Every structure is written in C-alpha cells, then in structure tokens.
Amino acid sequence: MQKIIQQSLENTLTYQEYKDLVKQLLLEGKSTGPNQSDALTNYSKLNNSRMKRLDKTIQVSNVATSKIQQIMQPQTWLVITEGWCGDAAQNIPVIAKMAELNKNIELKFVLRDENLELMDLFLTNGGRSIPKLVALDEKNNILFTWGPRPKTATKMVVDYKEKHGELDAQFKEDLQVWYNNDKGISVQEDFVELLNVHQKITI
C-alpha cells in the first residue's frame, strides 16, 4: 500500500493544474480518462461550469474554519477524481476552499483511471467511486478517507437503490438539486467530524 501511495504522489496535480487540464481537454473535445464519448465530454463541460461557479460562491463555515485551522502537523489531502464526475465537480471546490485555510494542508489530485492501483485500495462497496480523498501524514500514513459524496447524499443514494434498484436520470437530477441547495455545508460537516475523530487537536 505505501509503495502504491508513494508512486501516486509522484504524479499529482495541484487544484489549478487539474482545472487547467480539464479545460484544455475540453478545447480538444475530450474528457479526462481513456474512455471518450460525447456524453463524457458533455458531463465534463457541465462540471467545468459548476466548478467555476462554486469556486466563486462556496463559503466555509466558522465551525469548519476553526477546526481546519487547528491542524498543526503537515498533511496531504490526495484526491482521486475525473473531470466527467458530477459528484467530484460538486465537492472538490468545497475541499479546495477548506484546504486553503491551513498552510499545513497540501491538496493534490490524481486521475482515477491513470491510478487504478491506488483507486483499488479505496473502493466504496467494491466500486471505484469518486471523488475519493485520502488524508496522509508526513510519512504517508492514512489519517482518514472521505468520499465519494457527503454522508447525507450517500444515504439518499442507498435509500433510492433499495427502493428502485438503480439510480436513474431523475435521481441524478434530484441529487444535483440537493447539492445546489446544500452549498457545500454537508461536506464541511463531514470533515469536522473526521478531524474530531482522527486528528490530535486540542479543542
């Protein structure tokens, strides 16, 4: 595991580099990843617009700000993602805003389909669901993981699958509406809870 994590860290992108890559690929009519289709490109275009909007509008709560600023030891937040992923577009800007609040946090990105060995270390119910964030200490020990979506949204997904068997277009649309109304609050609450449990912070 340590070897795979270390290898993945050697080929990471900053948040700006990740956004620039998605934008450049869109200019070429492409999405990230080896599989290309009109649908994936259209998702990437929509997600690019979402991320631009969220970068300008997301506000980090006072509670989350206080908790994040209490992190005293350097850590890396490694995010596994792809540009066509709707959950990633809604959550990554929130994570980026939180990471900006503390110089001890280094935010890095890797593409899932170029790092399947890494992805397979952090499956969700056996699936390669993204985005997935892995928080690492200075020795690349795992502090906590998060993803692929906030706990509240995860429950929505589970409940819908139990009732209907699969996620249809209507649910996916409803989930995006939920994200828009939530404004990143649920992600922040998740991180406050994770930091309370996994970080040695004096409150």
Fold topology:
Elements lengths: L1 H8 L5 H13 L10 H20 L4 H8 L5 E7 L4 H14 L5 E7 L4 H4 L12 E5 L5 E5 L4 H14 L4 H14 L2 H14 L5
Parallel strand pairs: 1-2
Antiparallel strand pairs: 1-3, 3-4
Helix pairs in contact: 2-3, 3-5, 4-9, 7-8
Percent of sequence in beta strands: 5-15%
Taking pLDDT < 50 over at least 5 consecutive residues as the criterion, the unreliable ranges are none
CATH architecture: 3-Layer(aba) Sandwich
Characterize the biggest β-sheet: 4 strands, mixed
CATH homologous superfamily descriptor: Glutaredoxin
The rounded Rg comes to 16 Å
Could you tell me the CATH topology label: Glutaredoxin
CATH class value: Alpha Beta
Describe this protein's structure.
This protein has helices at residues 2-9, 15-27, 38-57, 62-69, 86-99, 116-119, 151-164, 169-182, 185-198, and strands at 75-81, 105-111, 132-136, 142-146. With 203 residues, the chain is of the alpha+beta class. The chain has one domain: Glutaredoxin, CATH 3.40.30.10. A 4-stranded mixed beta sheet has the order 2-1-3-4, covered by helices on one side. Helix 3 (38-57) runs parallel beside helix 5. The longest helix is centred in the N-terminal third of the chain and has 20 residues, at 38-57. It is globular, with a radius of gyration of 16 Å. The two termini are 32 Å apart. 32% of the residues are buried.
Short description:
This protein has a four-stranded mixed β-sheet with strand order 2-1-3-4, covered by helices on one side. It is an alpha+beta fold and 203 residues long.
